[in-house]
Specification:
394 residues; alpha/beta; Rossmann fold; Beta Polymerase, domain 2; five-stranded mixed beta sheet; 15 helices; 12 strands; binds adenosine-5'-diphosphate
């Protein structure tokens, strides 16, 4: 199952996008609808609200009088807290039930206006944000939904900012133009990304082999890595000692293959194995085989586990290393050494570009990676000297 979080400011077009995804085959979980359902007449939720706020919150027909509840519950922070303490767990439980009821190969789209406000981004495999300029949203809310302009603006102001949404968005859908334009983007998102992503995770499919192709340094790599790392930390929970962006994409100004290298550090390889299914389900299938790094003490190989990101449009290698060997520390040292020493970084860049050209016709990156490792092993010795001189620690 693939979990997609769909959010966006009011009037941006979230429902429009959600409906299209449902037409394409997604299982839609609508949080606004759930929030209404859990306080319908006859529910435990409504009974508890009446207990807490009195029966003046009921309309003549016994249903919830929302403005009356709002007047009481939004009067002060304490009242708001009491309201949330009743409603949030009920919404959470019902959401969990609906998600669990979806078939194993479902692409579940959770339409949730307050995804950012509630800090929920990391529980999804992918976060999709629908956006449109504020003035466009106000116009739509006034003309299509009959909202008063001041009301529309007040609601927009109370929500997360565009910057806060950008920080968690894996996919940014600009719906400032015609509806057809955004729907075409949704169709492509479904076919090119969500469908293969779901299959990659469920079938534990590795990434197809590719030749070494070096891209210019992308200044958005660190933010992209941070989003993925947040998911890794959530999935690994207490077994994560730390999780870091490593490798060339973590060094500003260094061209690299457009694959984010991430490192999850755990205490033991047994912990890494405990995480096999959790990480795989979270979107990072483990690659079969014995993976390891050249041991710098001449002892052969330092074993590790290797997972890859299932998202076909955001290639990720997730190296799970234990603190039983020094490889985790070396990855961080190498990154920080290159960040701090521009001449070394440029040397490394030249080596990579030369090798990528030499191996451009290869089917896989193996020969490229082996030859590159020779330079890296030499750099480790210089990095250790640098660490000793500067007092660097991981
Ligand atoms: P949200 O769920 O984000 O609040 P909706 O999907 O309900 O937003 O869209 C708000 C209103 O704007 C709806 O009436 C919708 O039909 C309309 N709308 C959505 N996208 C567009 C668009 N690209 N152009 C014009 N109107 C749109």
């Amino acid at each position: 199952m693939l979990r997609v979080g769909l959010t966006g400011g009011i009037g941006a077009g979230k429902s429009t996008v959600a409906n299209r995804l449902a037409e394409l085959g997604a299982v839609l979980v609508d949080s606004d609808r759930i929030a209404r359902e859990v306080v319908e007449p006859g529910t435990e939720g409504l009974a508890r609200l009446v207990e807490e706020f009195g029966d003046a919150i009921l309309a003549a027909d016994g249903s919830l009088d929302r403005p009356a509840l709002a007047a009481k519950a939004f009067a002060d922070d304490e009242s708001r807290r009491r309201l949330n303490a009743i409603v949030h767990p009920l919404v959470g439980a019902r959401t969990g039930e609906l998600m669990a009821a979806a078939p194993p190969d479902a692409i579940v789209v959770h339409d949730i206006p307050l995804l950012v406000e509630n800090g929920l981004a990391t529980v999804y495999h992918l976060v999709v944000v629908v956006d449109a300029p504020v003035e466009v949203r106000v116009r739509r809310l006034v003309s299509a939904r009959g909202m008063a302009e001041e009301d529309a603006r007040a609601r927009i102001r109370a929500q997360a900012s565009t910057e806060q949404r950008r920080a968690v968005a894996d996919v940014w859908l600009d719906n400032g133009g015609a509806e057809d334009a955004v729907l075409a983007e949704v169709d492509a998102l479904w076919t090119d990304r969500l469908v293969p992503f779901e299959a990659n995770v469920r079938l534990r499919r590795p990434r197809p082999p590719m030749p070494p192709k070096i891209a210019e340094y992308d200044p958005t790599w660190p933010a992209q890595a941070e989003r993925v790392l947040a998911r890794v930390r959530t999935a690994a929970g207490e077994l994560a000692r730390r999780a870091d962006h490593i490798g060339s994409t973590a060094v500003s100004g260094l061209p690299a293959k457009d694959i984010l290298d991430l490192q999850l550090t755990v205490a033991t390889l047994a912990d890494a194995d405990t995480l096999l299914e959790l990480l795989s389900d979270a979107g990072f299938p483990r690659l079969a085989g014995d993976w390891g790094d050249d041991a710098q003490d001449g002892s052969g190989t330092w074993p590790k586990r290797l997972h890859v990101g299932g998202d076909p449009q955001r290639p990720v290698n997730l190296h799970v290393r234990s603190t039983e060997t020094p490889a985790w520390r070396l990855a961080l040292l190498f990154r920080d050494f290159l960040r701090a020493n521009a001449a070394e970084r440029d040397d490394y860049r030249d080596v990579k570009l030369r090798l990528a050209t030499a191996h451009a016709a290869d089917r896989t990156v193996e020969a490229y990676a082996d030859e590159k490792q020779e330079w890296v092993n030499g750099a480790f010795a210089r990095a250790e000297k640098w660490a000793a001189a500067t007092g660097w620690t991981p």
